[in-house]
Amino acid sequence: MSDDQGFSRRSVLRTAGVAGAGLGIGALGTSAEAASSGTASAAHESGSAAAPPRRGETMIGVPFEERGTVRVGIIGLGQRGGSMIDLFLALEGVRVVALCDPVREKTERAAKKVTEAGQPAPALYTKGDHDFEKLCSRGDLDFVYVATPWDWHFEMAKAAMKGGKHVGVECPAALELGQLWELVDLSEQTRKHCMQLENCVYGQNEMRVLRMAHEGLFGDLLHSAGAYLHDLRGLMFDPDYYEGPWRRRWHTRLKGDLYPNHGFGPAANYMDVNRGDRAVRIATFGSPSLGLAAYRKEHMPPGHESWKETYIESDMSISLVQTAKGRVIRLEHDVSNPHPYSRINILGGTKGVFEDYPPRIYLEPDMTGDEWGDFGKYKDHDHWLWKEHANPPGGHGGMDYIMLFRLMQCMRLGLVPDFDVYDAATWTSPVPLSHASIKAKGAPQEIPDFTRGLWRKKRPGVDSEKPEG
Fold first, then answer.
1. Is 152 helix (H, G, I), strand (E, B) or coil?
2. Residues 317, 257: Cα–Cα separation, whole Å
3. Considering only CA atoms, which of 103, 109, 93 is closest in space to residue 126?
């Protein structure tokens, strides 16, 4: 789904050891003993124990600066960035000003798309792994889009904000709790938004369910579930799809949920996490790690570089997240075994339940007899974005386009973004915390309160009102 883009093979190899360093339980900023003790409950509710002192004012409710044209710089032009540029170029009031990727041919291919769209030739940054720093220091950019291997997301988001730019990052935003806190602090200090560009929260089904939940059709909410179940074995061993083995090698470093955002983002929205409720703890269990080794044995020749790899990442990780209101969110991750694509996408309450893949619903009093009903009958509850863009262009069923359209709309009109750095940190936190929980034999891990207590206040999110004019 989302992050399939290229950066240089030397970058991947150079960062393999660096990114994996410091990922022990202590470095993750968690304590299995504290999480499982009776004295930890108060800290779970307040979040104060995990929150360092605030270094700036909150970014909650802070609007973008109104502008006629949004000037965009793109870092990473492989599978993901190379396709998302088409959507940026299709949007009114958006100009692609600068492009960066150490693989020059990818940058030149993207630059050709820009000029063919009738825009001026963009500046190109292709001179090594850190040329993105020059892009981020330009004075004629408003927004930086990061679509590179995960190792680089944190560093590039930092450079963009320090350079005075708002930044949107593909999943995950960072890989350690300390990094997530640093992004929060830097966003508050620079007054620039740092956003997790989670396209799945803009899926048509997800947005319809969100509106129905807010309209009370599910009653009092009780539980939700989300996942990333996607057989990536062939792609992770494909020498041409990813630029180097970077994604496969994360399965040699972490045991938990490597990619929680697609499931956690929509579920968190249903539960108004950071907008009246808060995710407080997570417990994760993982299956044996067998799928990639089995695939390698069957498909990879002797001497292939992958034979030096030992896969430790749990093929199936199952996490339970509990909120301050006592609700439960289940997260699953498996990209290493045969499985039809699914994000699960469940929401249940006192009046009924929705389950996706395939979509089906049971709501009282509309349905009786314990038989699933037709979710299509609730299309009147679609979000206004889907009513206005019934057949959006681009991949992933159009949600990529909906996401970028809405983000650029907020920037041009000077609106508050639908999600912010606190959502980015929360949705990404299961990456290090699930690893820590598995290492601690399933002991719950505290999820920090990245809002520092401001989660209690209800506020708008992805379920937005159509702007006037």
1. helix
2. 6
3. 103
pTM of the model: 0.90
Look-up of token digits 């083995």: 245
From residue 210, how far is each of 268, 272, 276, 322 by CA, in Å?
Answer: 10, 10, 15, 19
> To the nearest 5 percent, what fractions of the chain are helix, strand and coil?
40, 15, 45
Q: Which of these, 207, 216, 265, 220, lies nearest to 381 by C-alpha position?
A: 207
Taking the CB of residue 292, how many other CB atoms lie within 10 A of it?
23
Q: pLDDT truncated to tens, each residue of the chain (469 aa)?
A: 443 333 333 343 333 333 333 333 333 443 333 333 333 333 333 333 468 989 899 999 999 999 999 999 999 999 899 999 999 999 999 999 999 999 999 999 999 999 999 999 999 999 999 999 999 999 999 999 999 999 999 999 999 999 999 999 999 999 999 999 999 999 999 999 999 999 999 999 999 999 999 999 999 999 999 999 999 999 999 998 888 899 999 999 999 999 999 999 999 999 999 999 999 999 999 999 999 999 999 999 999 999 999 999 999 999 999 999 999 999 999 999 999 999 999 999 999 999 999 999 999 999 999 999 999 999 999 999 999 998 899 888 899 999 999 999 999 999 999 999 999 999 999 999 999 999 999 999 999 999 999 999 999 999 999 998 6
DSSP letter string, 88-122: HHHSTTEEEEEEE-SSHHHHHHHHHHHHHTTPPPP
Question: How far apart are the C-alpha atoms of 184 and 157, rounded to whole Å?
Answer: 11
Give Dmax over CA atoms of the chain in angstroms: 65
Distances (CA, A) of 305 to 63, 170, 249, 254, 371: 48, 27, 11, 19, 51
The first and second tokens of residue 11, run together, are: 């970058």
φ and ψ at residue 74, rounded to 5 degrees: -120, 130
The Cα–Cα gap between 44 and 451 comes to 13
Query: CA 429, CA 193: separation in Å to the nearest integer?
Result: 18
φ/ψ (deg, to 5) at 141: -125, 145
Residue 303, both tokens: 């001497």
CA atoms of 336 and 229, how far apart (whole Å): 9
Is residue 204 a contact partner of residue 382, using CB atoms and an 8 Å limit? yes
Q: How far apart are CA 110 and CA 295, in angstroms?
A: 34
Distance between CA 378 and CA 260 in Å, rounded? Answer: 28
The pair of three-digit structure tokens given for residue 418, joined into one six-digit string: 């639908």
Length of the chain measured in residues = 469
Sheet holding 328-334, edge to edge: 360-363, 352-355, 346-349, 221-229, 328-334, 317-323, 279-286, 445-446
Query: Are the beta carbons of 50 and 462 closer than 8 angstroms?
Result: no
Token pair of 6 as six digits: 């290229």
